[in-house]
Structures are given as C-alpha cells and as structure tokens.
C-alpha cells in the first residue's frame, strides 16, 4: 500500500516476490505494476520481517534509497541491519506509541509489539494523520486493544488482516474431517477477531488489505480457497465482504493492485483497474494463469535448495546445541524431544534427527516416543543451514512444505525456539519470558459468574474485552486460546495457567506457575 499526501508519500510493506520456499505469492498479482514509479517515495515503512512483508529483492531493486525508513522500536536491530544492507541510509526511529510530526504537517505514530510470538521478534502498526484525515494500517499486528490509536481522534480508514497466515491445520497428519473442523474453527476465530478490532476503532471505512497468499506450486495448490472447503483458513477479500455483511458491516472497501482510494473526512471514493466483483468471480482463471506464468520462478527456486555437501546432523548440532545449553524458559517450555524426519532426494529414504530439549543435545533418533514431529524434505533443511537462517518459522514452517504430528496440545515454545536460532534472539526471548512469567497479575474481573485474572496468561490480552465464558470454559478471542476455569488449565497449549474461581466461592483457586 502506498499512502500519498501533499506532505509526502509512504510506501508500506511492498511484497512482490514469492516467500517461504516459493510457496506464498501475493494475490491478486501485483508484479505487473509500475514499481519504478511506486518505489519513488519519501518514506518507507516495513511492519515486520516476515518475508511476505519484507521483500528484500524488491526493496533493493525498486524502492528509492533516498526514502526515509520509518523504523518501529523493536528490541533487536535486525530490521535496521537488513535495510542498511540493502542500501537504505536514512532512518527515523519512531519512539513507541509517540506521535512524530514529519515535514509539512504529516504526522505518524508506530506501535511496536515485541513478544517473541509477534512476527519474527516484532510486529507493528502505522497510524498516519494529514490535514485532519487519519489512517491506521494495522496490517498483521494483533495488539490487545486499539485505544492508543482511538485516543488520537476519529479514524477515517482502517486497514487490517482478516485471513489466515499460518500452517495450521493444513499440515497436520489428521483425518480430513478433523482438519476441516479445526480449519472452520480457526476461520471463524479469524473473522471474530477482525470484527472485534473493527468495532474497537469504529473507522469510517474498513480496508481488508492483509489478505491471503495464493499457492501456485502444484504440491500446494489445494490450499487455495477455491475448492468449496469450509475449513480453508485463507478466505479472500470477496469472502470478507460477504461475512462482514452478515454482522452488519457496510463500510468495507476492497482494493486490487492498481486501485486508488481517495479518503477525506467526508467519505471515500475508489477507482479500480477492473471491477472488483468481476475479478473475484474469475478467481480460478486468474490463479491458473498466474500459476503458469510463475512456474519457471518456482522451478528455479527449487533447483537452489539442494546442498548435499552439508552435514545436516553435524550442522544442527553445531548451531543448535549451544542455544539449548543457554535456554531455560524455552527448553523447559518445550519439555521433551522434537523429531525431524528428513526425506531424501529419492523421496523415500528418511533420516530422523532429534532436538532433545531436556538432554540439551541434537542426536539421531533413538526409537523413543516424541510428542512433536515434523517431516520435510532434507533439501529444505540443507538450505536453511547453508544460508545460516536464524528463523525456521519465517521460512520452513510458513512454507507449508512439511507435515506435522503432535501428542497433546499446541506448544508455543517449540515455535518460539525455532524462531530464535541466534544468540541475540534467544537471549531476548529468554529475557522476555523471564520478565513476564515472574510478573504477578493481581487484577481480577468478573465474567459470567467467574472471578478471573484480567490479563490472558498467553499474551496479556484484556479478558474484560476479549474473554468469552461458555459453561466452565473461557476463550480469549484475540488468539482463540481456551482455559478450563475450574482447574485453571490451558486447553490450547502447554505452559499457561489461569487464575479463576466462581464468584460465589470465598477462596480463589491458587494461581499456577506459567511453566508448571
């Protein structure tokens, strides 16, 4: 998205090239826009380092190096370091949640989210004001509330995420009926969260811009929402409008590549390169044409992944074991061995490697029981080790080029660890968990006959707004996490316990340690 004002232009998250092992492509296709003109801007804003937002090749080639980067206040310097490596030299380091006035009366504010589970160590939203018109580009960010933006004045345009951006449940080795049921639950939660954010901000116009990727590789084609699967987690913008209408939404505006919306305090007018309804009516044809056009790009990427010279077991030991030695919270949170089944070049042979968190070692699989297992092509792991990738979530897992199985609940610590395969990231994550798990959350609220701690044990969402009680079960709608109120046990993941008791009880149930 590009924001143009009389006081300057801001280019936000330009993503064109395929991401995550050539599995994700932008949809609708934006690669044929005039990027030389679009990249000639005053300011660049990249919300976070996920590769469907941070497109290094595109930034290097097309975005003016005279642009000033509006930099979120993230806990590590990785984004600035990567942008400097691409040739950017001008940075405005925006203090978190503070309004900054740029030249000509253009005002911006950036809210940075900094938990280890927010993007790759950070996600953010951009608020912009010029001549009384206010815009919030929330994008993928999931703040606990939007009050910091609402307090700055009425917002006229709200851009936000509405579709899936994850690998669950598609990659799990489950019966199809179970996948569909879990997918439908996730799809419904995504929309519920979106409605909550829209209701919080009450903007004049809502733009569903952080939409679904499309999958053009034949092996991943089934993930596109074109097969009538009610459990598909990637609904597109036209589905958003239909679902939004069911809850009374009438102010949604869909943008296509090349669309221009002029927003004022009085309203919004939009022009499109083709009629929106016509475009989505022909979605399958657009995808099929795009698949053929992009096939050489996918094949070229695949040809670069094999590195038979890499000793996978040896390299995993060298890189991961020192981090296991230093890990306290993440290792305890995982609590057991994680197995990787690596399928050889022949498509049949398998080498199994275990990352043993309690034992603090990487070793060959010893025929033991494991709670968490991933199966993927050996070439993908070879490539990650060859390039020194520090974030296997922002590469392998988001690619959906794997299958997974687990015994029991989702465990966020597994993915937090494989997002932090560097000294800097690991130390930050360990420090974050240390600070937050030691904090005493003393404030309670009453919800439907239960007294419960106000903040969700997961990422501190305000349960007075996001908490829904059904019987003895509480759901935090921000991320869909569920808790058994009677025992305090988290039903969604290991490692998080809630403090709760019935309002008519005299003595509350004791709060559990987060990692007990």
From TrEMBL:
All copies of the Rieske domain together span 451-491
Instruction: Kindly give the SUPFAM superfamilies that the UniProt entry links to this protein.
Output: ISP domain, Metallo-hydrolase/oxidoreductase
Q: Does the keyword Methyltransferase apply?
A: no
Highest taxon in the source lineage: Bacteria
Is Iron-sulfur set as a keyword in this record? yes
**Which PROSITE patterns does the UniProt entry name for this protein?**
RIESKE
The family database entries (InterPro entries) matched by this protein are listed as: RibonucZ/Hydroxyglut_hydro (IPR036866), Rieske_2Fe-2S (IPR017941), Rieske_2Fe-2S_sf (IPR036922), SCP2_Rv3818 (IPR057330)
Q: Which Gene3D superfamilies is this protein grouped with?
A: Ribonuclease Z/Hydroxyacylglutathione hydrolase-like, Rieske [2Fe-2S] iron-sulphur domain
Which keywords has UniProt assigned to this entry?
2Fe-2S, Iron, Iron-sulfur, Metal-binding
Protein name as annotated? UDP-MurNAc hydroxylase
Supply the source organism for this entry.
Answer: Micromonospora purpureochromogenes
């Amino acid at each position: 998205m590009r924001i143009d004002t009389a006081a300057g232009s801001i280019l936000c998250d330009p993503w064109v090239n395929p991401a995550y092992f050539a599995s994700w492509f932008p949809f609708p296709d934006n690669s044929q826009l005039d990027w030389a003109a679009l990249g000639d801007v005053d300011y660049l804003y990249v919300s976070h380092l996920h590769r469907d937002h941070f497109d290094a090749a595109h930034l290097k080639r097309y975005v003016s190096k005279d642009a000033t980067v509006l930099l979120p206040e993230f806990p590590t310097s990785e984004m600035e370091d990567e942008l400097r490596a691409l040739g950017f030299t001008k940075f405005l380091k925006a203090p978190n949640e503070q309004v900054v006035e740029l030249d000509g009366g253009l005002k911006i504010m950036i809210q940075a989210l900094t938990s280890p589970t927010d993007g790759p160590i950070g996600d953010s939203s951009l608020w912009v004001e010029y001549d009384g018109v206010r815009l919030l580009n929330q994008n993928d960010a999931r703040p606990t509330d939007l009050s910091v933006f609402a307090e700055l004045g009425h917002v006229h345009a709200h851009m936000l995420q509405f579709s899936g951006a994850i690998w669950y449940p598609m990659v799990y080795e489950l019966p199809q009926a179970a996948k569909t049921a879990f997918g439908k639950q996730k799809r419904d939660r995504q929309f519920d969260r979106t409605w909550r954010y829209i209701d919080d901000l009450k903007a004049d116009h809502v733009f569903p811009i952080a939409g679904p990727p499309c999958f053009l590789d034949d092996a991943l084609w089934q993930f596109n929402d074109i097969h009538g699967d009610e459990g598909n987690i990637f609904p597109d913008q036209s589905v958003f409008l239909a679902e939004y209408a069911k809850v009374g939404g009438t102010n949604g505006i869909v943008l296509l590549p090349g669309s221009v919306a002029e927003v004022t305090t009085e309203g919004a007018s939009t022009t499109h390169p083709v009629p929106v309804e016509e475009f989505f009516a022909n979605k399958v044809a657009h995808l099929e044409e795009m698949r053929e056009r992009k096939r050489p790009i996918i094949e070229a990427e695949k040809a670069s992944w094999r590195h038979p010279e890499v000793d996978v077991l040896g390299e995993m030991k060298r890189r991961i074991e020192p981090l296991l030695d230093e890990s306290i919270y993440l290792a305890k949170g995982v609590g057991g061995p994680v197995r990787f089944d690596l399928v050889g070049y022949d498509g049949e042979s398998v080498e199994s490697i275990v990352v043993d968190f309690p034992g603090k070692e990487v070793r060959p699989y010893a025929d033991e029981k494991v709670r968490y297992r991933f199966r993927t092509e050996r070439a993908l792991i070879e490539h990650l080790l060859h390039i020194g990738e520090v974030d296997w979530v922002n590469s392998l897992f988001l690619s959906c080029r794997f299958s997974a199985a687990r015994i029991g609940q989702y465990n966020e610590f597994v993915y937090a660890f494989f997002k932090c395969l560097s000294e800097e990231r690991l130390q930050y994550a360990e420090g974050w968990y240390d600070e937050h798990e030691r904090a005493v959350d003393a404030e309670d609220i009453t919800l439907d006959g239960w007294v419960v701690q106000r903040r969700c044990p997961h990422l501190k969402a305000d349960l007075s707004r996001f908490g829904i009680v059904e019987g003895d079960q509480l759901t935090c709608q921000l991320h869909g996490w569920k808790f058994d109120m009677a025992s305090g046990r988290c039903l969604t993941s290991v490692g998080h316990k809630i403090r709760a008791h019935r309002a008519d009880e005299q003595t509350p149930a004791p709060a559990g340690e987060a990692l007990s």
